[in-house]
């Protein structure tokens, strides 16, 4: 069986070892709101789950981003794939419904129908997919299979025969019966003389004698009678059974004339389409997100892939795609960012509503999209894979049954730390904010020291303002493997006088934002006393 995957390179068998084990980040980061997989179980196909498409394997990531690049460069391929999916789903349904061993009239017609559908989708792919010059191994291999079938003599023969069958079956308007009678004019045998593309019409023997029907053999010598009115239900059933038997014999003989083609194309030649169906469903959802962003005028870039041991995430012009849904493109704030030898973990501080959490989400989204083999929301990106993405975000009290909020937070973080390794990414948003400053600072210092020893990458958004001052202390621990550094949300003037927030790699000035607010509302000392 010749098949191809658009998501995995030929011979790949690392599905189990290369996948993630924890998927809370999918909903926490809103990845399922970016890549929306339709629930289609009502159509008879399994629902897709995003968790099945994350990979740690750089070969798989490279294979997929090449496929995505071809579709970005030739958007018409996306349109072809959108049209192909419902056709392949119909083929799947027909394959399930058809029983090849039971050659009834119905099954014969099913066989013809599925071959008609196969011809339809091969025409779609042959006429619209083969014309593109692509570079990815995935789409090239898919094109090769389509080309081999579409240009084969077998397919041309099949197409011609199906055209004949469509004429024979699709245009049937009447049949001509032959009935043998016995000496008492009782019908004893019946058969079909011809299958016609015209309907019979009313007439009489007088019309025939006088030539009113002309040469038209479809003018009856007696008026047409309604079967439903002239026969009781038992006679109707007997009559229909006889007709069905005769039709079945005719169709069976017709189909048997090219039965080898049916056996081949019904199963074997549709296998590669069925095998690629879920790949297409995932790619269509992913490409919709990518094209939606590009249509808004936002950058979506093909990431360069760094090795696992390089522990890289270098971004230029990165942004949060969820924000683009709420604000115009001109108001989108982009940031440059980099994990490097001087900073694998960052403490992010700054004013409320300063873009800290938005940036944390941005880094998480970029990493998650990268590990599905997709374009990422940035102008440039070079990224290493991680073994897992872990999130610790604020939760509502309804999840804390039997525990105080701080105890719940600590328990949740402890379970995360049981899973991480030096190649993990952890994102902490306002952890320990439920307790006093001194208590929160103590726990956070213990955790940050441990994260530096583990050596993983991550971001910690916090209002614990003494943590940035402890960076040197964290980094000088004798077992530290990854340096901790600071990011500060700062306000900068735009040309129109408004302000937007940027994340800057610097020691935070805790009073800068307060000074700006005081100045804006006239709460500086000299202005207050001179009122």
Structure description:
The protein has 531 residues and is of the alpha/beta class. It has helices at residues 24-28, 31-34, 58-73, 75-97, 105-128, 137-150, 153-170, 205-210, 227-230, 233-256, 259-295, 356-370, 405-417, 437-454, 471-475, 512-520, 525-529, and strands at residues 174-181, 187-196, 304-305, 313-318, 335-339, 345-349, 380-383, 388-392, 424-429, 457-461, 484-493, 499-504. The chain folds into 3 domains: 24-169 and 258-285, no CATH class; 174-256, no CATH class; 297-529, Rossmann fold (3-Layer(aba) Sandwich), CATH 3.40.50. The protein has 17 helices and 12 strands. The protein has a 6-stranded mixed sheet, sandwiched between helices. It has a 4-stranded mixed sheet with strand order 3-7-4-5, covered by helices on one side. A two-stranded antiparallel ribbon has the order 1-2. α4 runs antiparallel to α5 (105-128) and α5 (105-128) crosses α6 (137-150). It is elongated, with a radius of gyration of 35 Å. The mean pLDDT is 84.
Descriptive tags:
531 residues, alpha/beta, Rossmann fold, 3 domains
Any idea of the CATH class of the largest domain?
Answer: Alpha Beta
Number of separate structural domains: 3
* CATH homologous superfamily placement of the largest domain: P-loop containing nucleotide triphosphate hydrolases
Number of helices: 17
**How many angstroms separate the termini?**
87 Å
Helix content: 40-55%
Query: The CATH topology of the largest domain is what?
Result: Rossmann fold
Task: Please report the total strand number as a whole number.
Answer: 12
């Amino acid at each position: 069986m010749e098949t191809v995957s658009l998501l995995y390179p030929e011979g790949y068998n690392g599905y189990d070892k290369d996948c993630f084990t924890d998927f809370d980040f999918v909903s926490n980061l809103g990845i399922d709101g970016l890549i929306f997989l339709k629930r289609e179980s009502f159509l008879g196909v399994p629902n897709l789950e995003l968790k099945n498409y994350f990979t740690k394997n750089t070969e798989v990531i490279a294979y997929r981003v090449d496929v995505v690049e071809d579709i970005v460069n030739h958007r018409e391929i996306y349109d072809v794939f959108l049209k192909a999916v419902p056709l392949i789903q119909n083929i799947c349904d027909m394959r399930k419904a058809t029983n090849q061993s039971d050659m009834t009239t119905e099954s014969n017609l099913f066989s013809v129908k599925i071959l008609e559908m196969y011809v339809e989708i091969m025409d779609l792919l042959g006429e619209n997919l083969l014309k593109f010059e692509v570079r990815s191994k995935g789409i090239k291999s898919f094109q090769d299979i389509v080309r081999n079938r579409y240009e084969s003599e077998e397919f041309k023969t099949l197409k011609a025969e199906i055209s004949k069958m469509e004429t024979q079956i699709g245009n049937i308007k009447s049949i001509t019966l032959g009935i043998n009678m016995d000496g008492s004019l009782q019908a004893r045998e019946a058969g079909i003389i011809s299958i016609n593309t015209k309907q019979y019409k009313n007439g009489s023997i007088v019309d025939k004698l006088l030539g009113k029907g002309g040469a038209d053999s479809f003018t009856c010598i007696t008026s047409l009678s309604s079967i439903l009115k002239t026969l009781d239900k038992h006679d109707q059933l007997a009559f229909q059974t006889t007709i069905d038997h005769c039709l079945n014999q005719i169709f069976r003989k017709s189909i048997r004339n090219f039965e080898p083609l049916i056996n081949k194309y019904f199963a074997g030649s549709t296998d590669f389409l069925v095998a690629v169906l879920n790949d297409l469903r995932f790619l269509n959802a992913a490409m919709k997100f990518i094209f939606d962003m590009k249509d808004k005028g936002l950058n979506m870039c093909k990431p360069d892939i760094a090795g696992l041991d390089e522990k890289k995430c270098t971004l230029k012009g990165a942004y949060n795609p969820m924000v683009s849904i709420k604000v115009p493109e001109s108001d989108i704030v982009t940031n440059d960012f980099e994990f490097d030898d001087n900073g694998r973990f960052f403490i992010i501080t700054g004013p409320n509503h300063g873009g800290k959490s938005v940036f944390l989400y941005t880094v998480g989204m970029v990493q998650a999209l990268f590990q599905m083999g997709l374009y990422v929301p940035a102008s440039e990106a070079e990224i290493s894979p991680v073994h897992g993405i872990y999130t610790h975000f604020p939760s509502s009290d309804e999840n804390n049954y039997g525990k105080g909020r701080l105890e719940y937070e600590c328990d949740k973080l402890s379970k995360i730390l049981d899973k991480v390794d030096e190649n993990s990414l952890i994102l902490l948003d306002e952890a320990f904010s439920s307790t006093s400053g001194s208590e929160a600072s103590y726990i956070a210092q213990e955790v940050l020291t441990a994260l530096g020893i583990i050596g993983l990458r991550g971001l910690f958004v916090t209002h614990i303002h003494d943590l940035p001052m402890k960076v040197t202390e964290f980094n000088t621990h004798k077992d530290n493997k990854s340096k901790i550094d600071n990011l500060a949300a700062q306000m900068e003037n735009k040309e129109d006088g408004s302000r937007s927030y940027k994340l800057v790699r610097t020691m935070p000035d805790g009073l800068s934002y307060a000074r700006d607010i005081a100045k804006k509302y006239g709460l500086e000392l000299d202005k207050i006393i001179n009122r």
